[in-house]
Amino acid sequence: MLWEQTGVRRLFLLLGIGLALSLPALSQPAEGPPSEPLAELGTRDAIILGLVEGVTEFLPISSTGHLIIANHALDLESGQPLQDAAGRPIWYKKPSAEHPEGVPLTIKLAADTYAVVIQAGAIAAVVLIFWGRLVGILHGLLGRNNAGLRLLRNIIIACVPAVALGLTTGDLIDKYLFSIEAVVVALLSGAVLMVAAERWRRQLPVANPSRLDPADLTVRQSLGIGLMQCLALWPGMSRSMVTMVGGYFAGLSPARSAEFSFLVGLPILTGAALLKSYKAGPAMIQVFGTPSLILGSLVAACSAALAVKFLVGYLSRHGLGVFALYRVALAIVLAGWFLMD
Questions:
Q1: Rounded alpha-carbon distances, angstroms, from residue 129 to 7, 28, 58, 305
Q2: What angle do CA 327, 59, 260 make, to 5 degrees?
Q3: In principle, which of 54, 250, 315, 337 could form an S-S bond with 303, CB 3.0–4.6 Å?
Q4: pLDDT by residue (tens digit) across 253-294?
């Protein structure tokens, strides 16, 4: 009971710190006079989006596919440009040399930004669960934990390829791969990859199960996982899924692969949340309001904690197979809902 009380307090503390780090960007005033939220999310909508983000961010089932369904069901797909109280456009991307006409904010873009910013809750949950690992990394930086220092090295190496590719090709990915058709193909392709990886793992000698720890990965193995993670830039593929599959091929057990996936996701998700907060956070707040952001982040934190705990336990016993079947079912739902009209 004491651990549970301490854990809950720590979760709220970490979530508060995460939101505080985002406040400088989120609190920058949008252009024009202050006004009431233009389309404030209701309690139900904020809870649904928080649940979708928290549960699907770390399960190998594609948060993108689920957010598409959630936004459609909640009627958050409007592409109509939004204006402030003075009738001026609210910019998602202000006019510039790269975007001469600018990109006006819409309900859809605000909802997409909201989903990324409330990742602060999911990040806080992972920090809480893997607090011991993170303390070990800190001790490694202080020269008191060699395993922690190796783990930090492996996390950085695994992050570099996807971050570099994302920064250089992000606009092209948004332009050519962010569509329902591309997400459906990614869901199906990912399912095939998961089945192949699971079959490969089960053919390994039973007498010699892998006991490799993420801290024991070599530079080459960590880089291989990082290159696999580049596939996650394809919307619908799932960052956690490709990282877990990469962990399989590097010799990690299913549970250790999931753990490494969570740890690698921390800097990537944190960077994405802070970047979105800086670029479009104030405009998103102007549309949806601050209470909705706080509620969605809290729900994302709680649901992510439960999802991570469930996944590690489930993978230890059953592997990735059922998630591959789920991805196929999700692809069928998306195709039937959006492509067969």
A1: 9, 32, 13, 7
A2: 130
A3: 54
A4: 999 999 999 999 999 899 888 888 888 888 888 888 888 999
